[in-house]
Amino acid sequence: MMLTQGKGGNSVTDKPTTCVREDLKNRLLVQLSDQGFSIESGRLNMLNAQKDALRAAHKKACDHLIDKAMNGLKKYERNLLCSIANGSEIDPNVISPRLIEVKAKSRDELLFRYARLHWSIPVSAGYGRRLRFLVWDDGHDRLMGILGLADPVFALRARDAWVGWDKEQRRSRLANVMDAFVVGAIPPYADLLGGKLVALAAASNEVRVAFERRYAGKTTLISGRQTGPLALITTTSALGRSSIYNRLAVEGRTIYHGVGFTRGSGDFPFMNGVYHDLRQLVAENSSASAKHAQWGRGFRNRREVILKALDLLGLPRSFIYHGIAREVFVVPLAENTTAFLCGEDDDLQAFDLPFSHLAAYWKKRWALPRAQRDKRFQDFERESWRLWSKS
Fold this sequence. Notes:
The chain is α+β, with helices and mostly antiparallel strands. 35% of the residues lie in helices and 15% in strands.
């Protein structure tokens, strides 16, 4: 069944208000159809699950983020592009990676924000606690990739089953988990398998130390407990199965463990130019759900807004399930990660993985062999990365 206009489903009698809702409902359905979704049994269904089709489904949301960021970043684009390498500049033997923690209100922050706009799926700014990193090539003084960590979702079936949590254990130790919301290399380093280097960076000592400096020992707002060390990082593949994370190991030690798939829910189908109007509709006709006083005022998150908007438009809440499942990966940072997260151990026995060691291994294992057999990285021109016109 293709997307079509359904019956209103609301009891509003004011004609102008009803027309506004119907117009918004129709625009939303058209947008979803344009992204490649149909409706089956009250759920969204992606007609074509191939990766090119999935990228196309995300394109409207990505374009919306680019438009939204233009006022803040366009004026810096020329300068930021100077940090992006031309492929012809790169001598793989000279690459010397370094991990840089991004500080607020810095050029590094602008560069991080600019780079994430180039992803083929929409990348959020992260929620709650955040750590952001650049992977920098000191050998060529150019950006290689970006890594962003933020608070994890409260319930993630595959992760929770792998840890072995019950509800109280999860509530007690979820603060010791972070989620990698963006992980990847940029061209030309991406063609040298730089994505694997950025993924390995998440498991590095430097990331654990940065977390401990920022958050360990601090009391969380919701649980009232002290955070402690970082024990686990989670992430999900961008488009189905991942070629970066699967079987990613260093000297025989598996770094990323695939533990299952998501149920295929999320807000990206609605981040296509109509979300602002959906939020306005909800703000004018609904109130935020009960939540912890420390979370501040307003709606809890975009999911809450979308669910309430679907109710107001007479559309099924099951639209929140878009059917694009992502593979879930966990990155344990210690020998006793699961025992620690379940409260069985109080002392975390962290792995010793300096970023310099991970970078040296990546260069020998992946980058140099790839450079020998595939020269496509040399074709990349940084001007092709420009998002906005020069004017």
